[in-house]
Amino acid sequence: MKTEKGKFCTNCGALLSKDAKFCTNCGAKQPEDDVEPAKTTSA
Ligand SMILES: [Zn+2]
Hints:
It comes from Secundilactobacillus folii. Residues 8-29 form the Zinc-ribbon domain. Pfam families: Zn_Ribbon_1 (PF13240). The protein has 43 residues and is mostly beta strands. Helices cover 0% and strands 14% of the residues. A hairpin with a 6-residue loop joins strand 1 (6-8) and strand 2 (15-17). The radius of gyration is 12 Å and the shape is elongated. The termini are far apart. The relative contact order is 0.24. Zinc ion is lined by residues 9, 11-12, 14, 23, 25-26, 28.
């Protein structure tokens, strides 16, 4: 679950910054799907 302001911890549901790598509440590692770089076809 995500919001414009951020996202929710996948473990405890705490509201985190959208670019948070870890939960500030429980310390669980967060997926970084929001920061995935655009794919290019450049060799
Ligand atoms: Zn958490």
